[in-house]
Amino acid sequence: MSAVPPPSNPVGRPIERRRRTRGAFDRLLTAPIALPALEARGRRALRAVAPWAKRLALPLAVLALAYPAFLLWSSQRPPLAPRHRAEALCFALAQRPVFSPPMTVESSSALVRGRFHERTPAAVALRETMRFSDDMVIQEGVAHVGDYEVYRLWLRLPADRGSGHWLIVAWMEGADLAISSFHFAGDQPDPSPDELMWGEALLSRVLVRENFRSALPPVRVRLARADAPLDFGPKKRGD
Q1: Residue 214: exposed, middle, or buried by beta-carbon count in 10 A (0-12, 13-18, 19+)?
Q2: Is the Cβ–Cβ distance between 230 and 90 less than 8 Å?
Q3: What is the model's pLDDT at position 201?
């Protein structure tokens, strides 16, 4: 009977394991960092970037100063959108040469939102909104200006609804009715020849193609007193 050989791993002796061959990734993780080489590379990179940095320093500094100034300037101007076209037409008369009739003309603007169908004519929408009768209409007409059909009319108001004559310009902004109105103060039933002449001059200033494109008219807005409309012509006492 042959003897049984002893176990190959006696209790208490650690098992010796063969280490695997180190790969490139292991060498990359455990390799010492060559600080002088890194510093040399950094210096070379800085020398390559320095000329471009010097060229860009001044433009970047100017931009850094100009951007806050632009934000401040834009925050002081009321934001305008195409729905403010009626207001923009009033301010267009304040651009040089300023509209300066011999009589006082007060302007105002309004936007009646969403009451009408997009295909509703401005003349119909204006009558439904203002509820004026045919005997109050002095003159009226429709003109195609830019991308819009523009309705204009001279309107007289009865004594219980005010005085003077109103030159009104109206058009549809989709389903909204836009109105720019200009009040000529007068005590006669009909506008005087001077009023009619200056009314035509006013229309020739505002009813231009550039004011009735999809974009807002290029006007420079100046702030008026909140309690007073923008007016033209001779100023009242105390203004």
Answers
A1: exposed
A2: yes
A3: 95
Torsion, Cα 29 30 33 38, to 10 degrees, reads: -30
Torsion of CA 73, 75, 80, 81, to 10 degrees: 110
Name the amino acid, one letter, at 206.
V
What sign for the dihedral angle of Cα 129, 130, 131, 133? negative
Higher pLDDT, 157 or 37: 157
**Tokens 């060559």 found at:** 34
Q: What is the pLDDT of residue 233?
A: 83
**With contact defined as beta carbons under 8 Å apart, do 206 and 109 qualify?**
no
Nearest-10 crossing angle of helices 85-92, 193-206: 120
CB contact at 8 A, 106 and 238: no
Angle CA 168–170–173, to nearest 5: 160
